[in-house]
Amino acid sequence: MRRRLSTSAHHEEMEKANGKSPPSRLCFLATLAAMFWIMIFYFHFTVLSSNPISIPEQSVPFPSISSKSQRISEAYEALELLKMMAKPKPKPSDVHLDTHKAPEVFPFTRALQTIENNTDPCGGRYIYVHDLPSRFNADMLRDCRQLSLWTNMCKFTSNAGLGPPLENVEGVFSNTGWYATNQFAVDVIFNNRMKQYECLTKDSSIAAAFFVPFYAGFDIARYLWGYNISVRDTASLELVDWLMKRPEWSVMDGRDHFLVAGRITWDFRRLTDSETDWGNKLLFLSAAKNMSMLVVESSPWNANDFGIPYPTYFHPARDAEVFIWQDRMRKLERKYLFSFAGAPRPDNPQSIRGQIIDQCKRSTVCKLLECDFGESKCHSPSSIMQMFQSSLFCLQPQGDSYTRRSAFDSMLAGCIPVFFHPGSAYIQYTWHLPRNYSTYSVFIPEDDIRKRNISIEGRLKKIPPDVVEIMRETVIRLIPRLIYADPRSKLETLKDAFDVAVQAVINKVTKIRRDIIEGHRDKDFIEENSWKYALLEDGHQPVEPHEWDPFFSKPKDGKGDSHTSSAEAAKNSWKNEQRSQV
Fold first, then answer.
1. Do the bridges between strand 257-264 and strand 209-211 make them parallel or antiparallel, or are there none, so unpaired?
2. Which residue windows does the record flag with biased composition (Polar residues) (predicted)?
3. Under 8 Å between Cβ of 501 and 431
4. Measured between alpha carbons, how far is 404 from 372 in angstroms, rounded to an integer?
5. Which one of 1, 343, 447, 457 has the fewest CB atoms closer than 10 angstroms to its CB?
6. What are the angstrom distances between the C-alpha of 385 and each of 309, 328, 341, 344?
7. Cα–Cα distance between 394 and 63 in angstroms, integer?
8. Is the separation of the CB atoms in 482 and 408 below 8 Å?
9. Composition of the chain by helix, strand, coil, percent to 5
10. Hey, which residues does 169 pair with through a beta bridge?
């Protein structure tokens, strides 16, 4: 290099000495252009001719100018292809970021999309009703005399399940809307209300939920006494078999299905196949565990049943009937501080009824209606409602099981309920009652009566009059959502117990569907703590220790609540049904 540089410099000096000027820049550019074309022809005849696909040699005429430009273009295309092939392949993560995966389509996508349709008043509220064979519903009504061992249920299934009208002889009721409704008639009342639901659909793809019009309560009521487990289970097994063959079932394996049973849950939770065990096993069937069953008393320890109100005697056909009744309850003069309607339970050592009756008898501000076999004012709807209407507080201890119809009759009368066990209302009717129970009721733990003999009268007198007035107003405002409107009509603006329950089921199913889409799974869910989840605004919140844990513990020594003792309570409840029949 250094030698070439020195020679060149020497040559330049000689040219200057001879008076010659150096080559012009134009010549230099011409040289570069020539070299460029030489490289192109070299690339064409050398690189492209080395194509891996072998072509037989043949004499080819010299290409024309147009074909030459085409060849050059092809050369550039080949060069670009080589560049692309030389690029490194993108990582899987880069592909994920750069491309948009098509959203997965679920069978219930259309149903969820209707929620966003603001022009559709039924968007997100459609209910699909299964067309069951008549043996699951209508046939039972035709054989209504077989629905109860002691009672002719035919009169109670009349008037769309409301029973015979009540005469307002003593002026206790309104002039219209009052019926002698059986406390276990919710099956037929709910089904007839569903027939009037404004958002029924035959298109299952847009259904927010699926209703199964099976009269589960009437079915088991026929066979509770004197029938083997095979007979008791027959209809439940046939129902599940029928449902599982339906295409609507396969969409969510029944998690979007619901049915109503107007009895307590223990009638459907037989633990074994022993002939001496109580009830049938409907709620323990694998398929039924996916469905939601609405019962008048649910289990604290299971997730597939939900409490709905017992039917009262009031079934208004119009909003105005409700408003008039509410105003009347506000204006009543209540001369008794508290009252109780019920019978003692001498065979149940855990019952506090005997102590409650004793306290009421000793008090000058308590009204008592003792209920027992035979004729009694306790069995008269008029006498019961009259007592509740004249009382500020109504005592509601456990019945044969956790709950009592009386609690809803008393609230209908504007009487503030006093509960002694959280299972009597607070964990049962979370769809229909405020979670803050102190706004509408008084809670006195059973042990305060059983062990400490606390004075009920003294406890209630400590509540300031202005607080009592606020609580009573809260109870009166709750009345619409605690009653079942006349199934043959429709309230204009008010939401009754049926409306509240249906919307709650829809909300539950919608949440499940969205969780499926988003891949959410509550792996920490403990079914035995179901009663705790019912008290949470968001079921996915962690379940902490609760002040009511002792009420729902299930110790092995048999001193606490358990499925077995609850089943025994169900048996006692059935025995005592004959007391309440008129």
1. parallel
2. 563-573
3. yes
4. 16
5. 1
6. 17, 13, 10, 20
7. 110
8. yes
9. 45, 10, 45
10. none
